[in-house]
User: What shape does this take?
Amino acid sequence: MDPFPCSQANEPDDGVDVTLIRWFLTLTSAERLEALENFVNDVLELRYANRSIWPNPRDTRQA
Amino acid sequence: MQTVRFGQILETLAKHEVDFIVVGNVSAVLQGVPVTTFDLDIVHSRSDENLPRLLAALQDLDAFYREQSTRKIAPKIAHLASPGHQLLSTRLGPLDVLGAIDANRDYESLISFSTEAVLKSGAKVRVLNLETLIEFKEAAGRPKDLAVLPVLKRTLEERREI
Assistant: This one.
């Protein structure tokens, strides 16, 4: 049977996902920055949507 | 809710012809390291010519000190002339403007350890190279620095194999 195509069997076991690195290296620097911005903005949007559950103790505007 | 636009912050700095180097995790991202961060760190030139350009860019970005919750205090030339760290909020996201890092390493001493990255508009910015970023994070030794070292090192290895 053919090995699973995403196998990392021969990679060092340091927990780093080398497939993610290889994908990220295929992007241009502008695309990498856009990926980071999208991630950050998605997290901020989630935090904002759940602000009553996860209040920011430093934000005095929140109840 | 604020939307973060690191690219546009860099474009604004480039538009004002500010001499700076992107350091920290955004420099790693620009060089292909899949890590995240919520702020953008730059080390700027503290030359007499550069400080007014930086101040104009920060005014364009509506920058103010983010620790001040009751009133907005904007940075001044005297602040930017110091080796200290100005932790700012801007209309496009958090921006840390650093006079020096890692025991007084300033713009002039870091420029030879930087490389170039191209933004969406085609503008070019200087970024601290991965080798030096790894050295700094190893020297800093803080948990947050040590946590990203494996992915920084593996990315550097992968880049060398391309």
Notes: DSSP finds two helices and no strands in chain A. The CA atoms of residues 29 and 35 of chain A lie 10 Å apart.
